[in-house]
TrEMBL record:
Record's catalysed reaction(s): D-fructose 6-phosphate + L-glutamine = D-glucosamine 6-phosphate + L-glutamate
Protein's gene: glmS
EC number: 2.6.1.16
The keyword Membrane appears for this protein: no
Keywords per UniProt: Aminotransferase, Cytoplasm, Glutamine amidotransferase, Repeat, Transferase
Function, as annotated: Catalyzes the first step in hexosamine metabolism, converting fructose-6P into glucosamine-6P using glutamine as a nitrogen source.
Residues of the full protein shown: 244 to 610 of 610
Domain SIS: 43-182, 215-357
Cleavable signal peptide: none
Source organism superkingdom: Bacteria
Name of the protein in question: Glutamine--fructose-6-phosphate aminotransferase [isomerizing]
Subcellular location: Cytoplasm
Native organism: Paenibacillus harenae
Location of the active site: 362
């Protein structure tokens, strides 16, 4: 059932091009000019009434939501906030009827996420679920559902569910923009063209897994490392860090690149690996200056940059992994791939049970 792969995680990493295609299928108009999520029951009138969005989830799904916030804010210009589901109810969130609450859950059974959904409904908000399991509790109780068609995810570490959640956010953002008229038609078409290119671009990253295996093997000798980035790169850094901790048991922290000098820089010492995401053109110079700060303290930096910046970026880092060029907002759907593979190979190098890491369950049904 692992289809020739050594682990479910690796199989699921390689299934991502298909998961992207399946999640987009039937949701983009044939002329590639618009996105239409026919499954949504929310009306255009309702969409026009949304004043804020709360995105609530746990773990990796929470990290997908961090990207989702950027997607919704930039495409639909509606303010969005992120909450970890286990914190949401207890901070007396201000949920009003013009709040759209989006819960994100691969399994659709996570207790904290389900509890957050119920709290949102009690407060009179509409709830949209992004889930991978049709008929799950979250899917049944939400007002609207966008199913991610990633197929069953068996490995405890989430990979294809995360990236399909990103695709769901891109589609939903475009759906909102279509109703609200917040984007130029040319920008919509550019994003749709970008979405269509992603599966092949993912394939080209997967072809370079041998390089990432080497990186992972050298990382596996370290006790601790850092992931840094700005904007959506910071969101992806957090996901990369969680994935590595979860299956390799190596300590790591994800930091907004500009925040390091406010404390964490004290932990940078000779030889410590730093994985720097450098995919956002507008933030490029700033991130490079943060890389210089860690390099000056002896860090060994692996840069993950977009094709197009590689010549410049190469000068500032010790090693460079290049991902294909895409639109800034879409980069998380590519930049997370090398991080997934590094975690996988690090876990493998350390001889851990990749698919069933210690202390963890696939679905967390207790609060
Ligand atoms: O099924 P869910 O998406 O609600 O699960 C949420 C988290 O438990 C899950 O993403 C967890 O963080 C993963 N094991 C991370 O790889």
């Amino acid at each position: 059932e692992k289809a020739g792969y050594d682990h479910f995680m690796l199989k699921e990493i390689y299934e991502q091009p298909k998961a992207y295609r399946d999640t987009m299928l039937g949701r983009i108009a044939d002329d590639n000019k618009s996105v239409f999520l026919k499954e949504l029951t929310m009306t255009a009138e309702y969409i026009k009434s949304i004043r804020k969005v709360h995105i609530v989830a746990c773990g990796t799904a929470y990290h997908a939501g961090l990207v989702g916030k950027s997607v919704i804010e930039s495409l639909a210009r509606i303010p969005a906030e992120n909450d970890v589901a286990s914190e949401y109810r207890y901070r007396s969130p201000i949920i009003t009827p013009d709040t759209l609450v989006i819960v994100v859950s691969q399994s659709g059974e996570t207790a904290d996420t389900l509890a957050a959904l119920r709290e949102a409904k009690r407060s009179g908000a509409r709830v949209l679920a992004i889930t991978n399991v049709v008929g799950s509790s979250v899917a049944r109780e939400a007002d609207d559902v966008i199913v991610t068609w990633a197929g069953p995810e068996i490995a405890v570490a989430s990979t294809k569910a995360y990236t399909s959640q990103l695709i769901a956010f891109y589609l939903f953002g475009l759906h909102l923009a279509g109703v609200l008229g917040t984007q130029e038609q040319s920008a919509v078409e550019e994003l749709i063209a970008g979405l269509h290119q992603l599966p092949e671009q993912v394939e080209s990253i997967l072809e370079q897994s041998a390089v990432l295996k080497q990186v992972a093997e050298s990382i596996s000798h370290h006790k601790s490392l850092f992931f840094i980035g700005r904007g959506v790169d910071y969101a992806v850094a957090q996901e990369g860090s969680l994935k590595l901790k979860e299956i390799s048991y190596i300590h790591s922290e994800a930091y907004a690149a500009g925040e390091l000098k406010h404390g964490t820089l004290a932990l940078i010492e000779e030889g410590i690996p730093v994985i720097a995401l450098i995919t956002q053109e507008a933030l490029y110079e700033k991130t490079l200056s943060n890389i210089k700060e860690v390099k000056a303290r002896g860090a060994h930096v692996l840069g993950i940059a977009n094709a197009g910046f590689e010549t410049e970026a190469a000068k500032s880092v010790d090693e460079l992994f290049t991902i294909p060029k895409t639109l800034p907002l879409l980069t998380p759907a590519l930049s997370v791939l090398p991080l997934q593979l590094i975690s996988y190979y690090a876990s493998l190098a350390l001889g851990h049970d990749v698919d069933k890491p210690r202390n963890l369950a696939k679905s967390v049904t207790v609060e």
